[in-house]
Give the backbone structure.
Amino acid sequence: ISDLAQVAYVRQKEQLGLGHAVLMAKDLIGHEPFAVILPDDVCVGVRPVIGQLIHAYHQTHASVVAVMEVPHDETSRYGVIASEPSEDPLDHGRLHKVTRLVEKPDPDDAPSDLAIIGRYVLTPKIFDKLEQTQRGAGGEIQLTDAIQALMEEQAVFAYEFEGVRYDAGTTMGWLEASVELALLRPDLGEAFRAYLRGLQL
Ligand code: G1P
């Protein structure tokens, strides 16, 4: 990996939320658009999900968040968007223009079943908004709230990505990702399949 990219890191000394964590990278990023990847969302697609968002960014020149449909009673685990279709016929209905974002709404208040998954391409204007964002859901400084504020100045889009997502932030999701991705690996898949078949289930 060290041959593929230059790696730098900053520490978030207090755990004040995702928005605060992103704000810690302000000086490192400067005035460029940038990607955010939450590694507990494991996404697997023919095209990498962040690549799909970068493609949408090049179409829109605006911030883009990854979304997927989730069961309505699970909306309180996610940021949820309200949106209208984008006007671009080439996006196969996957691109939406965001009209509102809510962090972890009760299902009764959720504006849709389209949940934000941990992949974002953001414009650097988000840092101004993060600096003004007060604590929100769970007492944390929420990236979702800063993106809602960003919409006062810039359009924001959501992209229904192609691919599978595992929630590795839950033990079950982490196990599913480990087993399914191991089975797909050319160097491990066959031996791991034989091992699973041998288990007394
Ligand atoms: C974060 C975001 C949330 C998003 C989720 C995706 O929440 O705040 O908007 O839907 O990631 O995994 P967290 O899972 O950190 O509570």
Notes: The helical segments are 18-23, 26-29, 49-60, 126-132, 143-150, 171-184, 189-197. Strands lie at 34-37, 41-44, 63-69, 79-85, 95-103, 114-122, 156-160, 164-167. The chain has a mean pLDDT of 95. The longest strand covers residues 95-103.
